[in-house]
Specification:
8-stranded mixed β-sheet, single chain, Aminopeptidase, 13 helices, alpha/beta, 5-stranded mixed β-sheet, 2 domains
Amino acid sequence: MKQFIYILFLFVTYSCSIFKPTYKVMKNSAAETYAKTITAEELKTHLEIIASDEYEGRETGKKGQKMTADYLRKEFDKYGLKPGNKGSNFQYFTLNEIQKPQANFLFHNKDFVYAKDFYFFQNYAKFEAFQVLAENLVPVEYGIIEGDRNDYKSKNVKDKIVVIKLESPEDFSAWDWRKKVKLAEKMGAKQVVFSSENFELSLKKLHHFLTKSSMTLATDKSKSKEDFIPFFFFSDDFLSEIYRVEKQDEDFIVRYPMYETLEFIYQKAGGPIESSNVLGLIEGSDPILKDELIIFTAHYDHLGIQDGEIYNGADDDGTGTVALLEIAQAFQKAKEEGNGPKRSVLIMPVSGEEKGLLGSRYYSENPVFPLENTVANLNIDMIGRLDENHTKEDYVYVIGADKISQELHEVNEATNKKYTKLELDYTFNDENDPNRFYYRSDHYNFAKNGIPAIFYFSGVHEDYHQPTDEVDKIIFSKVETITQLVFYTAWELANKPTRLEINK
């Protein structure tokens, strides 16, 4: 028995030497006091303003976005925040607008129309008029090479057009279109055609992206976001008619060769568009630590007006925007009462998210404060609704917290356990998440620069990117609790003696 106890003692001792204890958060009465200033009532008051029809859907570069920027500036000034950009609350940046492409596919005097019969993502690759010779089409089923699976086996695709099924088998869910296009290029293909059984559903979800103008930073000299070979998305029926192919034994068989021309025409808008991030600063109280800072982000832009309907974006991302206002007010009140954060806090609503994370990207490439002094980024995007996976409001998706700093994950876990007691759902933190949410909000532009970041999110819902995303559907008690969690986590980060430990 004594020997067993001794062995157990050694095991426990050894285990403790290997496994780092969970981060501990001591309850702080001051933090609780200021967290309580974040209320559902004030969140609602702000949201009813910026998500009203008067703000015209807050489209990037348009009247409503600029009205929102001015509203945020006035609120920062009312609270007493310092302008965060050399005496100004604004970080301006210029965008180049690219209108939706005029494109069609002419076949036997019939026009097949972009965003109806087929689609492509104009910002990811260069598209030009070209001719298609059917014999250059090579079917490669799912376009996957992994483990025992090789869809390219015994197939010569050099300078060919590969035909790939967009949907992937269950065991290969990580293979999205990006990964398939990159592999096709590596194998020598010059173009990719995706066939999709769910074409109509995908088209519906993407319609506003395909039919609205896109934007790029004026400072961006590259031809695209990513350097892809041309790729297109077709329905199975369209593919069969256009390319004269048929399905046989889960593969595509070309019936006969023919020439056809697919002509793309691009039109640029009449001039550059100006937008801005809004910066409010709460300077740290510690003479040494104040040079370090915590940055809060949420995008305040949305989709504007489409086909005469206003897309007010109450949840996307009105909820995140008003959360930043409440966090700003709480930290500033703490500072005024002698309990301010040791590190500085930068509240930065960003624009251009709906156009490709452009505002946060501009900041990361032109930082007002050195990136090396940025301890963490806490990003809030859509926290006001329930998604199909939840029936109760007491949850939040946490994405990215552990990817650069495991300690950040532990801090967030500990503050939630101590104060807010939400269900922290890590479903979308999975590296194989097919939704790729980690790459789809503004925190990513900080994370890719090595800055620890958390993305707080409640999931998508039936009103996502629809004109029905309105204030009356927001669960403000939910927004209040999540905002308080973000505040508590930031309070801990801003006041802890040491910076976050970075993963090795």
